[in-house]
Design a protein that fits this description.
With 155 residues, the protein is α+β, with helices and mostly antiparallel strands. It has a single domain, classed as Nuclear Transport Factor 2, Chain: A (Roll). It contains five helices and four strands; from the N terminus they run ααααββαββ. Helix 2 runs antiparallel to helix 3. 14% of the residues are buried.
């Protein structure tokens, strides 16, 4: 029985490891960047977020990096505490050195432990489409568009 169990692990472990992106893959790097952004937002670390935004940033509303920094500072001043629940819907690489991430974010003034709490907390729900570029071996946000999301989007 131990032999069969050992053989099963020997066969399945490589398959399990291959299902997750390699630690240094572009996808893993983008996921790490998004997670760092989530943490920095909750801690109101404007400097960390500023470093994540490219100097080339521009969105469909004509906002540049400086405008986004002003929006962040204003948002941080208006809210005593910020808690996020982030769900990465997808990450794609439409061309070399560029990534596109679809990210759902719930924002509330209290911790959000799971999706079921979204309605009770009256969280603001957003869907972000983020375009990133690899600039000098560092992923930076070059464009972000957002719209309202629905609770069902988080399920």
């Amino acid at each position: 029985m131990k032999f069969i169990l050992a053989m099963w692990w020997a066969f399945c472990l490589p398959l399990l490891v291959s299902c997750s992106p390699p630690e240094n893959s572009p996808e893993a790097q983008v996921r790490t960047l998004l997670k760092r952004g989530e943490t920095a937002t909750e801690k109101k670390e404007t400097g960390v977020l500023r470093q994540m935004i490219s100097e080339k940033y521009v969105d469909s509303q004509g906002q540049d990096k400086r405008a986004i920094e002003a929006i962040l500072r204003y948002y941080f001043m208006r809210h005593d505490s910020i808690h996020l629940l982030m769900r990465i819907q997808s990450i794609a690489f439409p061309q070399p050195g560029q990534a596109q991430a679809i990210v759902l974010v719930a924002m509330a003034g209290q911790p959000i432990s799971d999706v079921q709490e979204l309605e009770r907390l009256r969280a603001d729900l957003h869907r972000f489409e983020i375009i990133l570029a690899n600039e000098n071996k560092e992923w930076k946000v070059i464009r972000a568009e957002w719209r309202r999301a629905e609770p069902a989007d988080f399920l």
